[in-house]
Design a protein that fits this description.
The complex is a heterodimer of chains A (110) and B (414). Chain A has 110 residues and is mostly helical. In chain A, 36% of the residues lie in helices and 5% in strands. Chain A has helices at 49-55, 62-66, 73-85, 93-107, and strands spanning 32-33, 36-38. In chain A, helix 1 (49-55) crosses helix 4 and helix 3 (73-85) crosses helix 4. The longest helix of chain A is centred in the C-terminal third of the chain and has 15 residues, at 93-107. Chain B folds into two domains: 1-272, Oxidoreductase, molybdopterin-binding domain (Sulfite Oxidase, Chain A, domain 2, Alpha-Beta Complex), CATH 3.90.420; 301-412, Immunoglobulin-like. Chain B is 5% helix and 33% strand. In chain B, strands 2-3-4-5-6 form a five-stranded antiparallel β-sheet, with no helix packed on it. In chain B, strand 23 and strand 24 form a beta hairpin. Chain B starts with 23 loop residues before the first strand and ends with a strand. The chains are: A mainly alpha (110), B mainly beta (414). At the A-B interface, strand 1, strand 2, helix 1, helix 2 and helix 3 of A face strand 1, strand 4, strand 7, helix 1 and strand 11 of B. Chain B: Residues 98-268 form the Oxidoreductase molybdopterin-binding domain. Chain B: Its cofactor is Mo-molybdopterin. Chain B: This is Oxidase. Chain B: Residues 1-34 form the signal peptide.
């Protein structure tokens, strides 16, 4: 990001705040009926992608996992264990191993 | 439970949460060229994120996770004033199973447990039956800035935008508890919202405060932010506001208050959201043998908002640095700027004080002596005389980062 900072003369003073409206004046609330987007994106195909697709999309979308940093095998193992113990994800031991392998292959540190 | 499309396609558009009582609408994938992205500029993992305008009542937001939504406030918003516009107030949910259709006439806030009188309050009761209060307060996720952890850690990969400031309007939690009449022997108060786990057996999102904290007259039940009803994704119709404490306590779509006669044992209170019990909650990567404690209070932070990394600043000419600061669990006492990488500091001028727990604007003039690379730093000291530390805070879950921010600039002969 390359931006030039203007010398002081042209930007003197605090940014003008849009002061919020008179807060205490609100008297009624209006019902809402909205659409909240979801995502049905799957994990990129490859060895063991079935295991991660079948076990890791029920509670959060794939971008949640795909946006994670590269992590060691131990760290990915810890993540999968936490999903099973803390959040009660029903993952079989075979699938857990396959998922860790998938994550190490696609998002490992080495 | 969800039924997944088995095709390994990136373009399926079926609303997979349909049938669970959630209004769903798959994000439409636009051609790559038309999709605005932002580079969060960190090594060790994907640093590009989509910028989305697809969420209801929300403007341009950084898409950290589609579902349950994690929407980050773009950093430039913080240069525009101390109150974050409602349509860019950050969004974070733990479970996707929350209603998108809320009828204000049938909604009830229940108060139960160790009370003399169980309450079932309508929104009219809340808006018209209790004294109103306003407070400016920063809502900051405990994991704000996690993406900058070195080494990187798992979790929401927030840059600096999982914080937002608003004037909250509502009623005191104490007044609601007094109306119910808290029984002797009450120790904690537990809060729950309309969100439910996406799978059976998974822990419902609940958080608790001690009974004394709950009755401190500052903790409130908000029905408005910045003078308007809350956006759905920020917790419509009611949200707990815990001034000075991390956002995880600010339970959204609050509909259940339970007074407990024993410490809460649910996962989110008793196990999740833990930091090392060390000064600044920091440890060395790999270190073991420390005690873990819950995240609670915010810590002081400050940011330069009008100058970014890599910007060029005229040399030997006065320039303006401007930004925001907050004290955490108390007010801002001072903000100082360094233009020599932290060797010396100059005080900044503070803007209007809109409330102890809100953002405070600051600004100061500075002159870079010569051309070339320079390092700007900004440090907040709060009214409890706690200053941001100069060393890099790190802990295994990436919580409570408040290290002094550094901005690398280039001075150019004008």
């Amino acid at each position: 990001m390359l931006r030039a900072v203007l010398p002081i003369v042209t930007v003197l003073g605090f940014a003008l705040l849009a002061y919020p409206g008179e807060a205490a004046s609100i008297t009624t609330l209006k019902s809402l009926k909205l659409d909240v987007p979801t995502s049905d994106t799957m994990f990129p195909a490859g060895p063991e992608s079935d295991a991660i697709n079948n076990n890791c999309l029920a509670c959060h979308s794939a971008d949640h996992v795909l946006n994670q940093p590269s992590l060691s095998r131990e760290a990915w193992q810890e993540v999968v264990n936490k999903m099973i113990t803390a959040y009660k994800a029903p993952v079989s031991p075979d699938d857990a191993k396959a998922i860790v392998d998938y994550l190490v292959r696609t998002k490992g540190t080495s | 439970m969800r039924d997944h499309d088995v095709q390994p396609s990136m373009l399926t558009r079926r609303g997979v949460l349909g049938g669970m009582g959630i209004a769903s609408l798959a994000l439409l994938s636009a051609p790559a060229s038309a999709q605005e992205t932002v580079d969060l500029d960190v090594p060790g993992g994907p640093s590009m994120r989509m910028v989305t305008t697809s969420y209801p009542q929300k403007g341009r937001m950084i898409l950290q996770r589609s579902s349950p939504p994690w929407l980050e406030t773009p950093f430039e918003v913080f240069d525009q004033g101390v109150f974050t516009p409602n349509n860019q107030h950050y969004v974070s949910w733990h479970w996707a199973n929350f209603p998108a259709d809320i009828d204000v006439d049938s909604f009830r806030l229940n108060v139960r447990g160790q009370v003399n009188q169980i309450l079932s309050l309508s929104l009219k009761d809340v808006l018209h039956g209790l004294p109103r209060v306003d407070i400016a307060a920063v809502n900051q996720c405990a994991g704000n800035s996690r993406i900058y952890a070195v080494p990187r850690v798992a979790g929401a990969q927030w840059a600096d935008g999982s914080m937002s400031n608003a004037i909250w309007t509502g009623v005191r939690l104490k007044d609601v508890l007094d109306r119910a009449g808290v029984k002797a022997g009450a120790v904690q108060v537990r809060f729950g919202g309309l969100d439910d786990p996406a799978m059976e057996g998974a822990p419902k999102f609940l958080k608790s405060l001690t009974i004394d904290h709950a009755r401190d007259r500052e903790v409130m039940i908000a029905f408005a932010m910045n003078g308007e009803q809350l956006p759905l994704l920020n917790g419509f119709p009611l949200r707990l506001v815990v001034p000075g404490w991390c956002g995880v306590y600010w339970v959204k779509m609050l509909n259940d208050i339970e007074v407990l006669d024993h410490p809460d044992t649910n996962y989110w209170t008793a196990t999740g959201y833990r930091v090392p019990d060390t000064p600044y909650n920091t440890v060395k990567p790999g270190e073991t043998g420390f005690k873990m404690v819950p995240v609670t209070r915010n810590a002081p932070r400050s940011f330069i908002t009008n100058i970014g990394n890599g910007d060029s600043v005229p040399a030997a000419t006065p320039a303006l640095a401007r930004g925001i600061a907050f004290g955490g669990d108390c007010g801002v006492a001072r903000v100082d700027l360094s233009i020599d990488g932290g060797k010396s500091w100059q005080p900044a001028q503070l803007g209007a004080d809109h409330g102890t727990y809100g953002f405070r604007q600051w600004q100061t003039q500075f002159t870079l002596p010569a051309g070339g690379a320079h390092t700007l730093m900004v440090r907040c000291t709060n009214t409890k005389n706690v200053a941001q530390p100069g060393f890099r805070i790190w802990n295994p879950a990436g919580y409570m980062f408040n290290t002094i921010e550094t901005t690398h600039v280039v001075a150019a002969k004008g």
